[in-house]
Automatic annotation (TrEMBL):
Gene3D superfamilies: EF-hand, Transferase(Phosphotransferase) domain 1. Keywords: ATP-binding, Kinase, Nucleotide-binding, Repeat, Serine/threonine-protein kinase, Transferase. PANTHER family: SERINE/THREONINE-PROTEIN KINASE. It comes from the Eukaryota. This is Protein kinase domain-containing protein. It holds the Pfam family Pkinase. The keyword Transferase applies. Residues 1-160 form the Protein kinase domain. The keyword Transferase applies. One of its GO terms (molecular function) is ATP binding.
Length: 307
């Protein structure tokens, strides 16, 4: 079973780094090349497949009943929809999360403890890290401090994936990466047809990295998925431990107006109504609730839903 699953995940990970979403993954669309016991698996029927940009969401309902991801039916999906279609307890649970933000990617699945030691599996480059890095470099200094605190709570298993992704970017002698490292890694992974489009789109979105370096510790803060950690049973422990670290290293007194500026909120948002629980009344510092919300990168739109 692991042999088959590894082949499926490798195909899906390869498609996703090229910007292709299959949209109809099911047993009938995987065929063995021969009747030999060790025959290679082939993926067929790309008739419903489509190209998707890094931050694009698709909205047409396609796929087969019983295999289609929930978000497809809600007309808002991307490459995560393919992972729903792929079928250990924790492994399956993390593949079948209804929230696509909490669902493992194909590359992450290949690094899962249940499967990663099978026949020296090589972890592929994951397009998710580029989305997360993009969000990180555009974040406020306060949110970056919160993410750095969270990254210090990661377990050995959780760091395995991040170490693998960082290694694929081939850091320099000082253990740092730049935009050039990302460019070279993407060029190695991309097909000829995708090098001038897909690669360029990702590089443009990460242009802020052009004049700076990122070491492994900052990479972990940038590439950690808060939503995926939140799906774990140990999320509360992660969050509490991270808040304790943040209290020592990054928390400070902050007024609501400054916090609103950090979050990029518009003047139309009733700040004192929305953000009053984010700040401790005793010392004016960020509360635990505010810390957790900050980790998620709350926007004006998401805050308006809380009112």
């Amino acid at each position: 079973a692991k042999s088959v699953l590894v082949q499926i995940l490798n195909v899906v990970a390869f498609c996703h780094i090229q910007g292709v979403v299959h949209r109809d993954l099911k047993p009938e669309n995987f065929l063995f090349t021969s009747k030999d016991e060790n025959s290679q698996l082939k993926t067929i029927d790309f008739g419903l497949s489509d190209f998707v940009k890094p931050d694009e969401r698709l909205n047409d309902i396609v796929g087969s009943a019983y295999y289609v991801a929930p978000e497809v039916l809600h007309r808002c999906y991307s490459t995560e929809a393919d992972v729903w279609s792929i079928e250990a307890m924790d492994f399956v649970k993390r593949l079948l999360s209804k929230d696509p933000r909490r669902r493992m990617t194909a590359a992450q699945a290949l690094g899962h403890p249940w499967i990663r030691n099978y026949n020296d599996i090589k972890m592929p480059l994951d397009v998710l890290i580029f989305r997360l890095i993009k969000a990180y470099i555009r974040s406020s200094s306060l949110r970056k401090a919160a993410l750095k605190a969270l990254s210090k709570t990661l377990t050995v298993d959780e760091l395995f994936y991040l170490k693998g992704q960082f290694s694929l970017l081939e850091p320099d002698r000082n253990g740092c990466i730049t935009l050039d490292n990302i460019r070279m890694a993407l060029t190695r992974e991309a097909t000829d047809a995708m090098k001038e489009t897909r690669v360029q789109e990702i590089l443009v979105s990460l242009s802020a990295l052009q004049y700076r370096r990122m070491d492994f510790h900052e990479f972990c803060a940038a590439a950690v998925s808060v939503h995926q950690l939140e799906a774990l049973d140990r999320w509360e422990q992660h969050a509490r431990s991270a808040y304790e670290i943040f209290e020592k290293d990054g928390n400070r007194a902050i007024v609501i107006d400054e916090l609103a500026s950090e979050l990029g909120l518009s003047p139309s948002v009733p700040l004192h109504v929305v953000l009053q629980d984010w700040i401790r009344h005793t010392d004016g510092k960020l509360s635990f609730l505010g810390f957790v919300k900050l980790l998620h990168g709350m926007s004006s739109r998401s805050l308006s839903k809380m009112r």
